[in-house]
Amino acid sequence: MRVALVFNLIRYDKVTQANLDTIAEYDSEETIDALTSALESGGHEVTRLEADRNFPENISKLKGQIDIVFNIAEGLRGECRESQVPVLLEMLGIPYTGSGPLALAVCLDKVHTKEVLVANGLPTGAWKAFDTPDAPVDAAPPYPCVVKLRNQGSSMGLSPASKVRNETELKKQLNKLYDKYRYPMFAEEYLPGREFTIPVIGNSPPRALPVVEIVYPETDGVRMRFFEPDEWVAEKLEIEPVKQNVTTVCPAEVDENLREKLNELAVKTYKALGCRDWCRMEFRMDREGKPRILELNPIAGIDPSYWLPRSARSAGMSYDNLINTILDSAIARHGKFSQRRV
User: 327: how many CB neighbours lie within 10 A of its CB?
Assistant: First the structure.
Protein backbone atom coordinates (compact mmCIF):
# COMPACT_ATOMS: atom_id res chain seq x y z
CA MET A 1 0.00 0.00 0.00
CA ARG A 2 0.96 3.64 -0.38
CA VAL A 3 1.51 4.93 3.16
CA ALA A 4 2.14 8.51 4.24
CA LEU A 5 4.10 8.66 7.49
CA VAL A 6 3.04 11.87 9.26
CA PHE A 7 5.07 13.22 12.19
CA ASN A 8 6.40 16.25 14.05
CA LEU A 9 10.18 16.48 14.00
CA ILE A 10 12.43 17.90 16.72
CA ARG A 11 13.86 21.02 15.10
CA TYR A 12 16.49 23.54 16.12
CA ASP A 13 14.01 26.42 16.50
CA LYS A 14 12.05 24.30 18.99
CA VAL A 15 15.21 23.30 20.86
CA THR A 16 16.26 26.91 21.42
CA GLN A 17 12.96 28.18 22.77
CA ALA A 18 12.42 29.10 26.43
CA ASN A 19 10.64 25.94 27.60
CA LEU A 20 12.87 23.14 26.36
CA ASP A 21 10.50 20.38 27.47
CA THR A 22 7.97 21.41 24.80
CA ILE A 23 9.99 19.22 22.40
CA ALA A 24 9.45 16.16 24.60
CA GLU A 25 6.75 14.60 22.42
CA TYR A 26 8.32 15.33 19.04
CA ASP A 27 10.34 12.71 17.19
CA SER A 28 13.93 12.44 16.02
CA GLU A 29 15.18 11.64 12.54
CA GLU A 30 16.26 8.24 13.86
CA THR A 31 12.70 7.37 14.91
CA ILE A 32 11.31 8.42 11.52
CA ASP A 33 13.97 6.35 9.74
CA ALA A 34 13.11 3.30 11.86
CA LEU A 35 9.39 3.65 11.14
CA THR A 36 10.03 4.11 7.43
CA SER A 37 12.18 0.98 7.32
CA ALA A 38 9.56 -1.01 9.27
CA LEU A 39 6.74 0.00 6.95
CA GLU A 40 8.85 -0.76 3.88
CA SER A 41 9.61 -4.20 5.30
CA GLY A 42 5.87 -4.87 5.03
CA GLY A 43 5.99 -4.17 1.30
CA HIS A 44 4.58 -0.65 1.56
CA GLU A 45 5.63 2.46 -0.36
CA VAL A 46 6.31 5.23 2.18
CA THR A 47 6.02 9.00 1.77
CA ARG A 48 7.30 11.06 4.71
CA LEU A 49 5.35 14.19 5.56
CA GLU A 50 5.95 16.59 8.44
CA ALA A 51 2.88 17.98 10.19
CA ASP A 52 4.03 21.59 10.07
CA ARG A 53 2.20 24.76 8.99
CA ASN A 54 2.25 23.58 5.39
CA PHE A 55 0.69 20.21 6.22
CA PRO A 56 -2.92 21.07 5.14
CA GLU A 57 -1.72 22.06 1.68
CA ASN A 58 0.77 19.20 1.35
CA ILE A 59 -1.62 16.43 2.42
CA SER A 60 -4.31 17.81 0.09
CA LYS A 61 -1.91 17.44 -2.81
CA LEU A 62 -1.24 13.83 -1.84
CA LYS A 63 -4.90 12.80 -1.82
CA GLY A 64 -5.35 10.11 -4.44
CA GLN A 65 -1.64 9.28 -4.30
CA ILE A 66 -1.72 7.55 -0.91
CA ASP A 67 -3.93 4.85 0.56
CA ILE A 68 -3.53 5.48 4.29
CA VAL A 69 -1.65 7.68 6.78
CA PHE A 70 0.47 6.23 9.60
CA ASN A 71 -0.01 9.03 12.10
CA ILE A 72 2.37 9.82 14.96
CA ALA A 73 1.96 13.63 14.77
CA GLU A 74 1.61 15.41 18.12
CA GLY A 75 0.34 18.71 16.69
CA LEU A 76 1.85 22.16 16.90
CA ARG A 77 -0.02 23.89 19.72
CA GLY A 78 -3.30 24.19 21.55
CA GLU A 79 -5.26 22.11 24.04
CA CYS A 80 -6.36 19.62 21.34
CA ARG A 81 -3.14 19.60 19.32
CA GLU A 82 -3.05 15.81 18.88
CA SER A 83 -6.43 15.98 17.10
CA GLN A 84 -5.24 18.40 14.41
CA VAL A 85 -3.95 15.85 11.89
CA PRO A 86 -6.86 13.37 12.27
CA VAL A 87 -9.40 16.19 11.81
CA LEU A 88 -7.78 17.25 8.55
CA LEU A 89 -7.56 13.66 7.34
CA GLU A 90 -11.23 13.05 8.08
CA MET A 91 -12.17 16.25 6.24
CA LEU A 92 -10.27 14.96 3.22
CA GLY A 93 -11.55 11.38 3.54
CA ILE A 94 -8.06 9.91 4.00
CA PRO A 95 -7.82 6.78 6.22
CA TYR A 96 -5.29 6.84 9.05
CA THR A 97 -3.93 4.77 11.92
CA GLY A 98 -4.74 5.36 15.54
CA SER A 99 -7.43 7.01 17.58
CA GLY A 100 -9.82 9.63 16.29
CA PRO A 101 -9.98 13.36 17.14
CA LEU A 102 -12.34 12.97 20.10
CA ALA A 103 -10.36 10.21 21.81
CA LEU A 104 -7.09 12.07 21.28
CA ALA A 105 -8.51 15.30 22.68
CA VAL A 106 -9.96 13.60 25.76
CA CYS A 107 -6.81 11.56 26.46
CA LEU A 108 -4.62 14.66 26.22
CA ASP A 109 -6.85 16.42 28.75
CA LYS A 110 -5.96 14.56 31.94
CA VAL A 111 -9.00 15.90 33.85
CA HIS A 112 -11.49 14.82 31.18
CA THR A 113 -9.72 11.45 31.07
CA LYS A 114 -10.31 11.00 34.78
CA GLU A 115 -13.95 12.02 34.42
CA VAL A 116 -14.46 9.32 31.77
CA LEU A 117 -12.65 6.75 33.91
CA VAL A 118 -14.84 7.48 36.94
CA ALA A 119 -18.01 7.42 34.79
CA ASN A 120 -17.02 3.92 33.65
CA GLY A 121 -16.20 2.64 37.14
CA LEU A 122 -12.45 2.52 36.46
CA PRO A 123 -9.99 3.33 39.28
CA THR A 124 -7.95 6.54 39.26
CA GLY A 125 -6.47 8.84 41.89
CA ALA A 126 -8.30 11.83 43.39
CA TRP A 127 -7.74 15.19 41.69
CA LYS A 128 -8.75 18.84 41.44
CA ALA A 129 -8.51 21.10 38.37
CA PHE A 130 -7.03 24.63 38.48
CA ASP A 131 -7.53 26.86 35.44
CA THR A 132 -5.40 29.55 37.08
CA PRO A 133 -3.30 29.72 40.27
CA ASP A 134 -5.96 32.02 41.80
CA ALA A 135 -8.51 29.21 42.06
CA PRO A 136 -9.42 28.09 45.60
CA VAL A 137 -7.22 25.26 46.88
CA ASP A 138 -9.35 24.18 49.83
CA ALA A 139 -10.72 21.13 47.98
CA ALA A 140 -7.32 19.84 46.81
CA PRO A 141 -6.73 16.07 46.95
CA PRO A 142 -5.05 14.66 50.06
CA TYR A 143 -1.45 15.74 50.59
CA PRO A 144 1.03 14.93 49.29
CA CYS A 145 -0.21 15.54 45.76
CA VAL A 146 1.40 16.21 42.38
CA VAL A 147 0.82 19.38 40.36
CA LYS A 148 0.71 18.77 36.61
CA LEU A 149 -0.20 20.53 33.37
CA ARG A 150 -3.69 19.51 32.34
CA ASN A 151 -3.26 19.29 28.54
CA GLN A 152 0.33 18.12 28.11
CA GLY A 153 2.26 14.87 28.27
CA SER A 154 5.79 13.42 28.30
CA SER A 155 6.60 14.82 31.75
CA MET A 156 6.27 18.41 30.53
CA GLY A 157 6.25 20.72 33.54
CA LEU A 158 7.27 18.03 36.04
CA SER A 159 10.14 18.54 38.51
CA PRO A 160 10.94 17.51 42.10
CA ALA A 161 8.92 20.59 43.18
CA SER A 162 5.81 19.07 41.54
CA LYS A 163 5.16 16.96 44.64
CA VAL A 164 3.62 19.31 47.20
CA ARG A 165 2.94 18.58 50.85
CA ASN A 166 0.70 21.44 51.97
CA GLU A 167 -1.40 24.37 50.78
CA THR A 168 1.55 26.78 50.73
CA GLU A 169 3.60 24.50 48.44
CA LEU A 170 0.54 23.87 46.25
CA LYS A 171 -0.06 27.58 45.67
CA LYS A 172 3.62 28.16 44.97
CA GLN A 173 3.80 25.38 42.38
CA LEU A 174 0.56 26.45 40.69
CA ASN A 175 1.95 29.97 40.28
CA LYS A 176 5.29 28.66 39.04
CA LEU A 177 3.72 26.42 36.38
CA TYR A 178 1.26 29.04 35.22
CA ASP A 179 3.92 31.74 34.92
CA LYS A 180 6.08 29.44 32.82
CA TYR A 181 3.52 27.74 30.54
CA ARG A 182 0.19 29.62 30.78
CA TYR A 183 -1.70 26.31 30.63
CA PRO A 184 -4.48 25.02 32.92
CA MET A 185 -3.29 22.66 35.64
CA PHE A 186 -4.51 20.02 38.06
CA ALA A 187 -3.37 18.47 41.32
CA GLU A 188 -3.45 14.70 41.59
CA GLU A 189 -3.19 12.41 44.59
CA TYR A 190 0.37 11.11 44.92
CA LEU A 191 0.38 7.33 44.62
CA PRO A 192 3.40 5.82 46.39
CA GLY A 193 3.41 2.30 44.93
CA ARG A 194 4.97 0.54 41.96
CA GLU A 195 4.40 1.98 38.48
CA PHE A 196 3.53 -0.01 35.36
CA THR A 197 2.88 0.74 31.72
CA ILE A 198 0.87 -1.55 29.43
CA PRO A 199 0.50 -1.23 25.67
CA VAL A 200 -2.74 -2.33 24.00
CA ILE A 201 -2.96 -3.00 20.27
CA GLY A 202 -5.69 -3.97 17.84
CA ASN A 203 -9.46 -3.64 17.76
CA SER A 204 -11.23 -6.95 17.21
CA PRO A 205 -10.56 -7.56 20.02
CA PRO A 206 -7.85 -5.30 21.47
CA ARG A 207 -5.14 -7.15 23.40
CA ALA A 208 -2.71 -6.13 26.11
CA LEU A 209 1.02 -6.65 25.56
CA PRO A 210 3.35 -7.64 28.43
CA VAL A 211 3.38 -5.41 31.50
CA VAL A 212 6.42 -3.15 31.88
CA GLU A 213 7.46 -1.90 35.33
CA ILE A 214 9.01 1.57 35.49
CA VAL A 215 11.59 1.79 38.27
CA TYR A 216 12.44 5.34 39.35
CA PRO A 217 15.29 6.60 41.49
CA GLU A 218 14.10 8.90 44.25
CA THR A 219 14.80 12.57 43.59
CA ASP A 220 14.19 14.68 46.69
CA GLY A 221 11.75 12.02 47.85
CA VAL A 222 9.83 12.04 44.54
CA ARG A 223 9.44 8.96 42.35
CA MET A 224 8.44 10.23 38.93
CA ARG A 225 9.94 10.80 35.50
CA PHE A 226 11.22 14.25 34.55
CA PHE A 227 12.09 15.56 31.09
CA GLU A 228 15.54 14.55 29.85
CA PRO A 229 16.76 16.15 26.58
CA ASP A 230 18.47 13.85 24.10
CA GLU A 231 22.26 13.95 24.12
CA TRP A 232 22.41 15.81 20.81
CA VAL A 233 20.05 18.48 22.17
CA ALA A 234 22.18 18.92 25.31
CA GLU A 235 25.30 19.14 23.13
CA LYS A 236 23.73 21.74 20.82
CA LEU A 237 22.75 23.91 23.80
CA GLU A 238 26.05 23.27 25.59
CA ILE A 239 24.32 22.04 28.72
CA GLU A 240 25.10 19.06 30.91
CA PRO A 241 22.75 16.20 29.98
CA VAL A 242 20.48 15.14 32.85
CA LYS A 243 20.50 11.42 33.55
CA GLN A 244 17.76 10.25 35.85
CA ASN A 245 18.64 6.56 35.47
CA VAL A 246 15.07 5.34 35.10
CA THR A 247 15.08 1.58 34.50
CA THR A 248 12.44 -0.88 33.33
CA VAL A 249 11.63 -4.53 33.93
CA CYS A 250 9.82 -6.33 31.14
CA PRO A 251 7.92 -8.46 31.60
CA ALA A 252 7.26 -7.04 35.04
CA GLU A 253 7.81 -9.34 38.00
CA VAL A 254 4.23 -9.50 39.30
CA ASP A 255 2.03 -12.37 40.40
CA GLU A 256 -0.55 -13.76 38.01
CA ASN A 257 -3.50 -12.13 39.77
CA LEU A 258 -2.01 -8.64 39.46
CA ARG A 259 -0.96 -9.29 35.86
CA GLU A 260 -4.49 -10.30 34.92
CA LYS A 261 -5.94 -7.32 36.78
CA LEU A 262 -3.63 -4.85 35.02
CA ASN A 263 -4.32 -6.37 31.61
CA GLU A 264 -8.07 -6.30 32.24
CA LEU A 265 -7.95 -2.65 33.32
CA ALA A 266 -5.79 -1.71 30.33
CA VAL A 267 -8.24 -3.15 27.81
CA LYS A 268 -11.28 -1.69 29.61
CA THR A 269 -9.59 1.72 29.71
CA TYR A 270 -8.71 1.49 26.01
CA LYS A 271 -12.35 0.80 25.16
CA ALA A 272 -13.79 3.39 27.56
CA LEU A 273 -11.75 6.20 26.01
CA GLY A 274 -12.48 5.08 22.43
CA CYS A 275 -8.89 4.23 21.52
CA ARG A 276 -8.06 2.45 18.25
CA ASP A 277 -5.19 0.41 16.83
CA TRP A 278 -2.65 1.17 19.59
CA CYS A 279 -2.16 2.96 22.89
CA ARG A 280 -0.03 2.78 26.04
CA MET A 281 -1.58 3.02 29.52
CA GLU A 282 0.16 4.07 32.73
CA PHE A 283 -0.74 2.71 36.19
CA ARG A 284 0.51 3.22 39.72
CA MET A 285 -0.33 1.31 42.88
CA ASP A 286 -1.99 3.19 45.73
CA ARG A 287 -1.27 2.93 49.45
CA GLU A 288 -3.42 -0.20 49.68
CA GLY A 289 -1.62 -1.94 46.83
CA LYS A 290 -4.43 -1.43 44.31
CA PRO A 291 -3.75 -0.25 40.74
CA ARG A 292 -4.90 3.23 39.73
CA ILE A 293 -4.91 4.56 36.16
CA LEU A 294 -2.64 7.59 35.68
CA GLU A 295 -3.13 8.39 32.00
CA LEU A 296 -3.34 7.11 28.42
CA ASN A 297 -0.92 7.73 25.56
CA PRO A 298 -2.72 6.98 22.27
CA ILE A 299 0.25 8.39 20.34
CA ALA A 300 2.91 6.83 22.53
CA GLY A 301 6.63 7.03 21.88
CA ILE A 302 7.38 4.42 19.25
CA ASP A 303 11.13 4.58 18.70
CA PRO A 304 12.54 1.01 18.78
CA SER A 305 14.18 1.73 22.16
CA TYR A 306 10.98 2.95 23.86
CA TRP A 307 8.67 1.12 26.25
CA LEU A 308 5.93 0.07 23.82
CA PRO A 309 8.28 -1.65 21.34
CA ARG A 310 10.15 -3.23 24.24
CA SER A 311 6.91 -4.75 25.53
CA ALA A 312 6.13 -6.02 22.02
CA ARG A 313 9.55 -7.69 21.80
CA SER A 314 8.83 -9.44 25.08
CA ALA A 315 5.68 -10.83 23.40
CA GLY A 316 7.78 -12.16 20.52
CA MET A 317 7.02 -9.32 18.08
CA SER A 318 9.86 -7.68 16.20
CA TYR A 319 9.75 -3.93 15.71
CA ASP A 320 8.80 -4.35 12.05
CA ASN A 321 6.04 -6.77 13.03
CA LEU A 322 4.67 -4.33 15.64
CA ILE A 323 4.49 -1.40 13.23
CA ASN A 324 2.85 -3.44 10.49
CA THR A 325 0.40 -4.98 12.97
CA ILE A 326 -0.74 -1.46 13.91
CA LEU A 327 -1.07 -0.58 10.24
CA ASP A 328 -2.99 -3.78 9.48
CA SER A 329 -5.41 -3.05 12.33
CA ALA A 330 -6.19 0.33 10.81
CA ILE A 331 -6.54 -1.10 7.30
CA ALA A 332 -9.03 -3.70 8.54
CA ARG A 333 -10.96 -1.08 10.49
CA HIS A 334 -11.25 1.30 7.56
CA GLY A 335 -12.29 -1.57 5.30
CA LYS A 336 -15.21 -2.34 7.58
CA PHE A 337 -16.23 1.30 7.61
CA SER A 338 -16.23 1.36 3.81
CA GLN A 339 -18.44 -1.71 3.65
CA ARG A 340 -20.97 -0.13 6.01
CA ARG A 341 -21.14 3.03 3.95
CA VAL A 342 -21.90 0.97 0.84
Answer: 21
C-alpha–C-alpha distance, residues 105 and 81, integer Å: 8
The band of 160, judged by pLDDT with boundaries at 50, 70 and 90, is confident
Q: Each residue of 266-323: pLDDT tens digit?
A: 999 999 999 999 999 999 999 999 999 999 999 999 999 999 999 999 999 999 999 9
Sheet hosting strand 68-71, strand order edge to edge = 45-50, 2-7, 68-71
Q: Are 44 and 2 in contact (CB under 8 A)?
A: yes
Q: String of b and e for 124-160 (b: at least 16 CB within 10 Å)? A: bbebbbbeebebebeebbeebbbbbbbbbbbbbbbbe
pLDDT for position 293: 97
Cross-strand partners of 48: 5
pLDDT computed for residue 134 by the predictor? 87
Q: How far apart are CA 227 and CA 185, in angstroms?
A: 18
The domain that holds 262 is classified in CATH as 3.30.470.20
CATH number of 138's domain: 3.30.1490
What total number of domains does the chain contain?
3
SS3 71: strand
Angle (nearest 5°) at CA 51 between 19 and 68: 145
pTM of the predicted protein model: 0.89
Which comes out higher in pLDDT, residue 22 or 75? 75
- Of 241, 271, 267, 262, nearest to 194 by C-alpha is 262
116, part of any domain? no
